[in-house]
């Protein structure tokens, strides 16, 4: 069994820009296996638009790649919709489609938070330099949480897109509403408009697919958890308490969460307790996002999901982050119960 609580992974700034591709959960997705909800035509429209965009990224009319100087300014698509409507599936599908005609060094996929970590670690000039030759950049969960990342996002896109880098971004927030409720966004309208003006907005509607036709899954009791743990490969299983995880997440930077989970195939987390501190809760949310994206198995015991996050936070500025985390926790628990 892996002693996750003892790990303190290191990561060089250069390693932050390596392996930026769809995670294990999205390795096999494609536009072909995306199943749009017929009740929401915007889902099929979004699929078709991104498929066409990915096919053209890095190409001239006639199929020639744009590797010469003086190429046209990059274009952007901003896919806006609620959680659980398939945005990440479509973003990963765009990566796979574009990878058929782009070299690996010309395309990258990362979350917006990962992009902020890269810029913070490398500095703006080096970060922009690391991606300036990319033909296509895909950014998942684009959101402006504070003035700092608003300025960084605006500056970064302004350095890349005019020189020809195409960008697809997904978000739970319309581009014109970025930052609202999180900081005094009205004071940063120039930067927000600078960001939104680089994209064609594409809305995608629909319910959370993870909850279609089923009640949200809930945490396991001790007996069910023990049976689940016994069914896992003991060499790739990690089990720790919520308290142990909380201490770990305070000491390990979120940019290292993927390295922290290296070699883990299944994670058992026991004795979940409510998280009244928003800083602790947001780190937990980011950890669950990484756990989910990596396609790891997971099971949990303790506090019911609906009581994990303070009511004030679940309806505050970060409500969508918490809702996404609860949706993903429910899916992970459903998978654990069915296995």
Description:
A 5-stranded parallel beta sheet has the order 2-3-4-1-5. It is built from 12 helices and 8 strands. The protein is an alpha/beta fold and 339 residues long. It has helices spanning 41-56, 87-98, 112-122, 124-131, 147-160, 189-196, 222-231, 242-251, 257-260, 278-293, 311-314, 319-338; strands spanning 76-81, 107-111, 136-140, 166-171, 200-204, 237-241, 266-272, 297-302. Helix 3 (112-122) crosses helix 4 (124-131).
Q: Which helices and strands occur, and which strands form pairs?
A:
Elements: H1 41-56, E1 76-81, H2 87-98, E2 107-111, H3 112-122, H4 124-131, E3 136-140, H5 147-160, E4 166-171, H6 189-196, E5 200-204, H7 222-231, E6 237-241, H8 242-251, H9 257-260, E7 266-272, H10 278-293, E8 297-302, H11 311-314, H12 319-338
Parallel strand pairs: 1-4, 1-5, 2-3, 3-4, 6-7, 7-8
Helix pairs in contact: 1-2, 3-4, 4-5, 5-6, 10-12
